[in-house]
Specification:
Layout lengths: L4 H4 L7 H22 L7 H10 L14
Helix pairs in contact: 2-3
Length: about 70
């Protein structure tokens, strides 16, 4: 089981839910790209996605809350 969440969640406003959603979206992108190109992945898309976030190739950007 992968447990790199402590490495990825670096700011107080980020949480495990946003991490799961971000990794799922990235894994889907990886899978769709591989399918479109007709390539076979050596690792699972989720593993690749987690490594993308761990190594800062992708970051979670959350919108700022509206002031009001």
């Amino acid at each position: 089981m992968l447990k790199p969440s402590a490495n990825i969640i670096k700011t107080p406003h980020m949480n495990q839910y946003s991490l799961v959603i971000a990794v799922a979206k990235r894994a889907r992108q990886i899978s769709e790209k591989a399918e479109h190109e007709g390539t076979k992945l050596a690792d699972k898309p989720v593993d690749i996605a987690v490594q993308d976030f761990v190594h800062d190739r992708y970051r979670i950007v959350e919108p700022k809350e509206l002031e009001g």
